[in-house]
Amino acid sequence: MPSPPGPTTSRLFSRGSWPEARRIAEILRLETVGGMLLVGAAVLALIWANSPWRETYTALSEITVGPAALNLDLSLATWAADGLLAIFFFVAGLELKREFVAGDLRDPRRAALPVAAAVGGMAVPAVVFVAFTVSSGSEALAGWAIPTATDIAFALAVLAVVGTSLPTALRTFLLTLAVVDDLLAITIIAVFYTSSLDLFWLALALVPLAIFGLLVQRRVRSWWLLLPLAAITWTLVHESGVHATVAAVLLAFTVPVVRRSAGEGPGLAEHFEHRIRPISAGVAVPVFAFFAAGVSVVDGDGLGAAFADPVAQGIVAGLVLGKIVGVLGATWLVQRFTHAQLDEGLSWWDVLGLSMLAGIGFTVSLLIGELAYDAESGLGDTVRIGVLSGSLLAAFLATLVLRVRNRHYRRIAEEEARDDDGDGVPDVYQSGPAGSDKKDYSGER
């Protein structure tokens, strides 16, 4: 019989630092509200698209605005996908950089688990989708990346309702997995869903991008300087044929995370996050959801025809089955090859619940679906039905598992929150006797 693990045994989902836990809690609150708004916008779109006034919903989506001379005379639905989602990906880029530069995940041992889970959670759903659609031809296969994404706002909204007492480490894992997932998704969009590439415009986009990077490295915060440069970069990337949201991630990666001195206040990445995340979660993503989720199921064969299509079947199976196998399997492999063990008190049922929750692929899945199939393919509604159904089924299954686990963790939550020395830092985050661990966690490192 193997001996119990010693004190130096590495742990999966171990408790991070108190400042990281506090920062994650703040992000969760904002994203949870955004998730509620996202769900509300999607429900409104579904109701409108299936009402007697559904023609007005379609007409609203197709209203064209913007300067034609710059090839920016786009429909409102396209502006939501290309423009508003750029705000979402800018915030995701800031969060990813902060995680790996100043967060707990700057430690490669901590980063390995969510990165591996994100990769597994994208690879397996893609394989599952291909298995369902390989006999349908190359057109159907074009959507292989649709079930690979995890919607952070939607997933956190579900987690906020059913997992109020889950350990912070599990929430951090889900958040980080989704952020890495977003980076991989935007890479897939840039590489595989760029139909034509104009290198001249792409090279020209590097000029305002470099100026933007130079200014933020000098800690310039003036919006009247940075916003025009960001808009020009976005426009030039859009003109190059690469999806314009890629520009937002590149802009975010230029923003410095670590502040120059302890007394200068929040770092620039944190400053931008505090300003822009509410716009992303409260406006950009819900508006995109409103224009992307409106699918009519009352016309024609409706749901029956959609679910008979291998594309919808592949999306649902990828989001539900593929995510479970990918995330859970990658986590098990990390545990197997590093000889790590789950942190004390955690269970593989927790990992299963989070794997199911990762199957909520709403926002980015809908975006990839729009890029994979053009209007002539007739697969737009099929993709929407598949994404909505798969995401709702994943949310339902995750709820069943996590509600049971949440009751278990609720019983120990009060003990976790004890702060006997009254210093504002829970005692479980202090390495020694109360008050012995007094590091300054107030700012970025």
UniProtKB/TrEMBL annotation:
GTP-binding keyword on record: no
GO-annotated biological processes: regulation of pH
Primary localization: membrane
InterPro entries linked: Na/H_antiporter_dom_sf, NhaA
Ranges for region Disordered: 415-445
Residue ranges, compositional bias (Basic and acidic residues): 436-445
Role summary: Na(+)/H(+) antiporter that extrudes sodium in exchange for external protons.
Protein name: Na(+)/H(+) antiporter NhaA
Lineage: Bacteria, Bacillati, Actinomycetota, Actinomycetes, Pseudonocardiales
